[in-house]
From TrEMBL:
Pfam families: PorZ_N_b_propeller, Reg_prop. NCBIfam families: Por_Secre_tail. Keywords: Signal. InterPro entries: PorZ_N, Reg_prop, Secre_tail, WD40/YVTN_repeat-like_dom_sf. Transmembrane segments: none annotated. It comes from Flavobacterium tibetense. Residues 1-17 form the signal peptide. It comes from the Bacteria. The keyword Cytoplasm does not apply. This is ABC transporter substrate-binding protein.
Length: 763
């Protein structure tokens, strides 16, 4: 399978790269600021996986992220060089990314591949520009880069015996380089010395414990771990600021000194007088924790840990404007759900064993096409913690249920928010787990898997209680007991619920395989597990029903299929099968021993399957063909850890929620229409330079599509699987068709419905 997949990728990768702007969208958060830096007119801010900037003259905001080909590991620092018109970005793994003036991205992996130190010692801590060189402070020492050619010049290991030494920041004064180290004070070397690569040529300038160093007005300025910042007068350090906390960042724009601590920002002028002091109480609406700050053109910019980038006037820092681009609360998105008018996301979490601790106290993010992202803050959510899943009422999309894996079930109806728990749902409602020995004051209600059935009833699971399956019918709760069904009743934990056409509930369970249940069949239960159901692992992570009534089952160690959910009606035991694919003379199991996180079925009955730390696969309806495989290296995915997949059946947009942000792929995963009344073609016309495909949507399933030129010569023919097909504007894949009008003839499978459309191609 691997050989087949990578061959496919080699064929399609260039096309994907060309079509990124057409096929992919980003839904990133810009609230978690790692570092900020200044240019002559712009401020630049870095989050963990992206960079954005604001022009202080025009007010224009621009973003650089995975959609632009910017693929960091985890950003640690940033600096801007207006001299060479480049922005340099450091990462935890030693990756150095360069955003060039034309917006292109250069990846420098020399530190990762060539510096002979352990991978955990390659973190980049600071970037400093001096005389056309970038001095890179790392956990092993200092590397030097030519800022113009982007070639690495040398590396300095500056420990007293030539060992690796964690360097936090560097600066240059009078052509001598000073390096603040974690454990060996400030080390010093002469840049005129041709033998500076020799550790013996370095000396200790000061033995103290320092966190940062800059050059300002031809003096050394350094911050100490004692919560004070000093200037060196030529013979000794003299205190210029007591900031009470250990400093996070020490910066200068050559006009001011900016010191950032977790709760304060201080700005000093040329004479070392403090001209501005900002505390987190200065922004009471947020009460933020600060991460970095800088000054550009008389404006102070402050980055925060969770609340974005703030701008205020340096001369009168009283009004603070959040200038981060619109986005969700944070990049870690645990679940996403697409409704008719909104995309809902939650940011809570639990681990593989369903442990939600430490509990998250986070809000809910939702996206509207007209208004962008909005956040319902945690303070409005009645103290509901560790939000884990989402269900939208199909008959009332304004009514949304959010499960909490600690506090119960949130009900959101417009601006009305209520919390359902063990106190207000009656004797058959939600239950708190019981400690041993019992503690009546402890309340821990672990709700998951909210799912509506076709009758509008809301089903959920309740972990660590006997009556683990619950349903809300109207205003009445009902519970179903799992005693005698599963082996681990007292510790039962559950993931997704899939409800089939027969109203059978298929529930993914931790250590208990699958619990299948139908209350309309005299409360019939079947437990599919390792012993009786051919599951490769007792931990079932997800279930998904396809359009042919098959149940696709993801486990901690592989994939299984239940051939027909109708078997539940007549059988008392159910056995699953694997999918075997043929590769030449070799046969192997699809996703053998792979940990599957999620499975989603698109309108063409194809399956999107995410693998733990392995990206996402799109396989054909029967699993025999791999259509796409996306990961961080060959696509705009910001991470290979895709926590949730959601498909908009109307538009075909596939959302990938990851631990480092959400992106979507604009494929052809649309649901089939009931008729051909709304068939449409886009783009139309196809203009010169377009490198994508023409999409024909609004199709019925298994419709026949023929495309001819204006003289009736056939250039393309296919049958739809779902509601959309693609045409690459070639004549049966051989050559690009010429400019002209092309006729599209569409007929339903039985021939009773048909339509004709036109598309113009301009070369």
């Amino acid at each position: 399978m691997k050989r087949y997949i990578w061959l496919l990728l080699l064929i399609n990768f260039q096309l994907f790269a060309q079509q990124n702007n057409q096929l992919w969208k980003s839904y990133f958060s810009y609230n978690e600021i790692v570092d900020v830096t200044n240019g002559s007119t712009n401020v630049y801010a870095a989050t963990e996986n992206s960079v954005f900037s604001k022009n202080t003259t025009t007010g224009n905001l621009s973003q650089t992220n995975a959609i632009n080909g910017f693929k960091p590991e985890s950003i640690t620092c940033i600096t801007r060089s207006d001299v060479v018109n480049k922005t340099f970005v450091g990462n935890t793994n030693g990756l150095l990314l360069v955003i060039n003036g034309d917006g292109s991205i250069t990846q420098k992996v020399d530190i990762i591949t060539e510096v002979p130190v352990p991978p955990n010692k390659k973190r980049i801590n600071d970037l400093y520009e001096h005389n056309g060189r970038i001095y890179i402070a790392t956990d092993y020492g200092i590397s030097v880069l030519n800022a113009t050619t982007l070639e690495f010049i040398t590396t300095y290991f500056i420990g007293p015996s030539g060992e690796e030494l964690e360097v936090l920041q560097t600066t240059v004064k009078d052509n001598e380089i000073y390096a603040v180290t974690r454990t060996n004070g400030i080390r010093k070397g002469d840049l005129n010395n041709p033998f500076l690569f020799d550790f013996a040529e370095w000396s200790t300038f000061d033995n103290g414990f320092w966190t940062g160093i800059i050059t300002f007005n031809n003096q050394l300025i350094a911050s100490n771990t004692n919560g004070r910042t000093y200037r060196h007068n030529g013979s000794a350090f003299v205190e210029i600021l007591n900031h009470f906390q250990v400093g996070l960042r020490l910066k200068t724009n050559q006009s001011e000194i900016i010191v950032t601590t977790p709760t304060s920002v201080f700005v000093l002028n040329q004479t070392f007088n403090t001209i501005a002091t900002i505390t987190n109480a200065s922004i009471p609406e947020y009460n933020p924790r600060f991460t970095a700050a800088t000054v550009v053109n008389g404006k102070l910019f402050i980055g925060t840990e969770k609340d974005g980038l703030f701008e205020t006037a340096l001369a009168n820092p009283t009004n603070f404007e959040n200038i981060s681009p619109n986005g969700p609360l944070q990049n870690y998105i645990f679940r996403v759900k697409k409704g008719p008018n909104r995309i809902w996301t939650v940011h809570g979490r639990y681990n593989q064993q369903y442990n939600p601790y430490p509990l998250d106290e986070l809000g809910i993010s939702y996206f509207e096409h007209q208004n962008g992202w909005s956040v319902i803050p945690y303070e409005d959510l009645l103290e509901a913690k560790s939000l884990s899943d989402i269900a939208i009422n199909p008959s009332n999309p304004n009514e949304v249920y959010i499960s909490s894996y600690f506090s119960g079930l949130l009900k959101i109806n417009g601006s009305d928010i209520s919390l359902l728990n063990n106190t207000n749902t009656g004797p058959n409602g939600l239950e708190s787990l019981v400690l041993t020995p019992p503690n009546p004051s402890y309340v821990d209600i672990r709700i998951n898997s909210p799912t509506f059935d076709s009758d509008g009833n809301l089903w959920i699971t309740n972990a660590f209680v006997n009556r683990g399956i619950k349903v809300l019918r109207g205003n009445q709760w009902q519970s179903y007991n799992l005693q005698g069904i599963t082996a681990n009743i007292a510790t039962g934990r559950y993931n997704t619920i899939a409800i089939d056409k027969n109203k059978t509930k298929w529930i993914a369970a931790y250590n208990d395989g699958i619990v299948a249940f139908n209350e309309n069949l005299n409360n019939k239960f079947i437990n599919i597990n390792v012993n009786n159901g051919n599951l490769p692992d007792p931990v079932v992570t997800c279930v998904a029903l396809d359009n042919r009534n098959q149940l696709w089952i993801g486990t901690f160690r592989g994939l299984r299929i239940l051939s027909s959910v109708d078997r539940f009606l007549s059988e008392t035991e159910l056995t699953t099968t694997n999918i075997v694919i043929q590769e030449g003379d070799l046969a192997q199991e699809l996703f053998f021993q792979q940990s599957i996180i999620d499975i989603a079925v698109d309108g063409a009955n194809r399956k999107w399957v995410s693998i733990a730390n392995g990206g996402v696969f799109l396989v054909s309806a029967n699993g025999q063909e791999t259509i796409y495989r996306f990961d961080k290296d060959n696509s705009p995915l910001p991470s290979n850890n895709i926590l949730d997949i959601e498909i908009d059946g109307n538009s075909g947009e596939v959302f990938f929620a990851t631990d480092k942000g959400m992106v979507s792929f604009l494929g052809t995963s649309t649901k089939p229409s009931d008729s051909l009344a709304d068939v449409f073609v886009y783009p139309n016309p196809v203009r010169p330079g377009f490198v994508g495909t023409v999409k024909i949507s609004g199709l019925t399933d298994k419709a026949n599509i023929k495309i001819t030129d204006i003289e009736g010569n056939l250039v393309f023919e296919t049958t739809s699987a779902g509601g959309t097909i693609e045409w690459d504007t070639t004549a049966f894949g051989k050559y690009k068709v010429a400019s002209g009008v092309y006729m599209i003839f569409v007929a339903s499978q039985d021939g009773t419905d048909s339509t004709v459309k036109k598309v113009m191609v301009i070369r």
